[in-house]
Amino acid sequence: MRAVPVAVDSEGISVDDGYQSAFHARMAVTTPTKQSPLGVCMSLRRRTALIDWAREAGAWIVEDDYDNEFCFEGKHLPTLHNLDAYGRTFYLGTFSKTLHPSLRVAYIVCPDEAVAPLRRAAKSLLDGISLLQQKVLTAFIAEGHFALHLKRSRSICAARSKMVIDALTAQLGHRISVCRKSCGLQIFATIDGPSTDVAICELAGQKGLSVSSLSSRYVSAEPKQGLLLGYANFATEVQVSRSVDSLRECLDYFAQARAEP
Questions:
Q1: Is residue 257 within 8 Å of residue 200, measured between CB atoms?
Q2: Bridge-partner residues for 176, per DSSP?
């Protein structure tokens, strides 16, 4: 198996670029609700084009829809799986983001002919998932508790996302550019300045911050400098202020180092 990178723009994955670089690919792996790591949503036009390619090429689409529940901007578009009238899409989801990481329960919605092979593969690769966990989760969903939990979680995360974005913009807006349309449990920001995102992340880690670099996610294109920042664990403005202060110290360090002769 050989992975072929495909360009991404403001509409998500570039299907035209995929046509040119790997039309005969057997599979396309994509995160249409929230492109990882930029957070952009794939447009309806691109979704339709990708499905048409899969039908024409006899290929499969793997739609990883992780943390799609935490998108707060714009209209929620239909999934590729819902749009796909040809049965070419495998829809992947997980409860580790919405309930608890240690639950380790995920699922695949797939074409009928793929059910048996997937079951055989799961039996050979996994030790199995607790039947009790599955039954409790089923009841939790069927009785409406999961929907209520999601509604409350979305409200909390939307408020925390806004709190962090507002703090970053107010205190570091002249140094970084925050993308307010980022979807999911991370905020994406580009860096304005001479320092590299990798170096900033290393220094931030020493200060107790968990920050990921954007440039390290690139495969072939010229890397952009940016930061991926989680926000869901910030409950108060005091916590946010302390973390933003630490991030500013990191940016100051590299600015001063560059200014010195």
A1: no
A2: 191
Helix (H, G, I), strand (E, B) or coil at 229: strand
* Domain boundary residue, one of 143, 166, 201: 143
- pLDDT (tens digit, 9 = 90+) per residue, 215-231? 998 887 788 899 999 99
- The SS3 assignment for 12 reads strand
- Out of 119, 143, 167, a domain closes at 143
Can you give the CATH number for the domain in which 202 is found? 3.90.1150.10
> Three-class SS of residue 184?
coil
Between CA 161 and CA 185 the distance in angstroms is 8
Distance CA 44, CA 66 (A): 19
Query: Which residues in the chain show pLDDT less than 70?
Result: 74, 182, 193-194, 257-261
For residue 26, which amino acid is it? Answer: R
CA torsion 85→91→97→102, rounded to 10°?
150
